[in-house]
Amino acid sequence: MRKKILLLFPYRFTEFEYYKYEISKLEKKYNLKVIIHDLSNVVTNKKLNAVWKTKLEKKTLKFSSLISWISYFHKTRKEKIIIFNHVTAQNLNSFIINLLIKLSKLPVMFCDEAPPHPESKKNIHFFLSRIKRHNFNYKVYLFYLKLYFFKFLINLIKYDKIYSLSNNCHKNYHSSYYGRKEKNFVKINFNSYDYSNALSVEKNKKKKFTKNYIIYLDNGGPYFTGDSHLTGNRIPKYDIKKEYNDLNLFFDKIEKYFNAKVVIIPHPKYRSSNTKKIKSFNPYFNNRIVNNAHDSLAKLSSNCLFFIHKASTAISYAVFHCKPVIGIYTPQCLHHQEFEDILGQSRNLGKKPLDTSKINKKKILKNLTINKSKYKYYKYNYLTHKNKTVEKIPNYKIIGDFISKHI
Questions:
Q1: Rounded to 10 degrees, what is the CA torsion of 142, 148, 83, 394?
Q2: What would the 3-class secondary structure string for the chain be?
Q3: Model confidence over 57-79: pLDDT tens digits?
Q4: Which residue, among 383, 404, 406, 407, has the nearest Cα to 189 in the 3D structure?
């Protein structure tokens, strides 16, 4: 009998996610059937769902209510099925979904990627800084109160069998979402998905590209509002026109310094599927090269000159290919969360971010050096395990092989 994987996803499941999770490869090589449930209308809000611009994947079942999903799940739970759960218990509906999954006694996999930044110490300074930042914005406090409350409740109930797909290599590892390690808890050594996607293309690579381009990893902001509709964070006040005018002037300088073109890689939420009609969902990039392909980073990263970013986890591709990375910021973002993220990611790679208003070629060249020990640390703490049976194997093969042998 053909085994089935039921992938539960809390947000808009786009064509990019279909590529990212290597679903077509998993189905084709291992004769598995992957059923995808887009639960964005059940566990998140309309404002957040409206943010997505990338085309939705057609091969999904989209549910409009919790009742309709419960009805479907009740019919399918009797089949030989493996649940791949991406839904965390952060509100009532998502709590109920997780509760039903646990009560079903079906085998459950979940992906527990190590966050590519140091965890903040939850001390008095941390809480005071957050209160200062959010002031009387009750929405953000309510979001986290619900998150921790429902997380506490759901951890009171044990899974029958759970498999953690994790690139976290720490000895004292335990899932932050699914409770402490127990007999019914199995950890499967895994890669971050950026690393795995890069690995898949690297193995099949034949064609070489000329190094006359620089990759800019766009994080969507400030033109797009991002996840603020999820957490309740207030959207920082930017002079958006000035922000992008300054950014484009910076790109002009970079292109002149290195006689190379900057290639914009849009955030996965904002990729155009019809570039003849819409080159970029961000109009400030319409005069630049924009690559909307889902595998653009996997294919282009190995032969670029270097990367530029404003807080993007996609710097994983730079680490994978050992390419220089420059973090940038503008004076406008100095007091926002974005600057903290840029600063943290830059420190991870042994660098300091650059102010685009005070840039020159000498500063750029100084930042193009690579701290190999930092890159190695980043790779084996956030991307993969120091184990050839993992770091050389794409995720779809790790999942497929494990299911074939153990489930």
A1: 100
A2: CCCEEEEEECCCCEHHHHHHCCHHHHHHHHCCEEEEEECHHHHCCHHHHCCCCCCECCCCEECCCHHHHHHHHHHHCCCCEEEEECCCCCCHHHHHHHHHHHHHCCCEEEECCCCCCCCCCCCHHHHHHHHHHHCCCHHHHHHHHHHHHHHHHHCCCCCCCEEEEECCCCCCCCCCCCCCCCCCEEEEECCCHHHHHHHHHHHHCCCCCCCCEEEEECCCCCCCCCCHHHHCCCCCCCCHHHHHHHHHHHHHHHHHHHCCEEEEECCCCCCCCCCCCCCCCCHHHCCCEECCCCCHHHHHHHHCCCEEECCCHHHHHHHHCCCCEEEEECHHHCCCHHHHHHHHHHHHCCCCCEEHHHCCHHHHHHCCCCCHHHHHHHHHHHHCCCCHHHHCCCHHHHHHHHHHHHC
A3: 999 999 999 999 999 999 887 78
A4: 383
φ and ψ at 215, to 5 degrees? -95, 125
pLDDT tens by residue, 120-146: 666 666 656 666 666 677 577 777 788
Residue 259: pLDDT band (50, 70, 90) is very high
Residue 179 has pLDDT above 90, yes or no: no
pLDDT > 70: percent of the chain: 85
Q: Please tell me which residue, 131 or 281, carries the higher pLDDT value.
A: 281
Give the C-alpha separation, 223 to 330, whole Å: 14
The residue type found at 394 is P
Rounded CA separation 86/195 (Å): 19
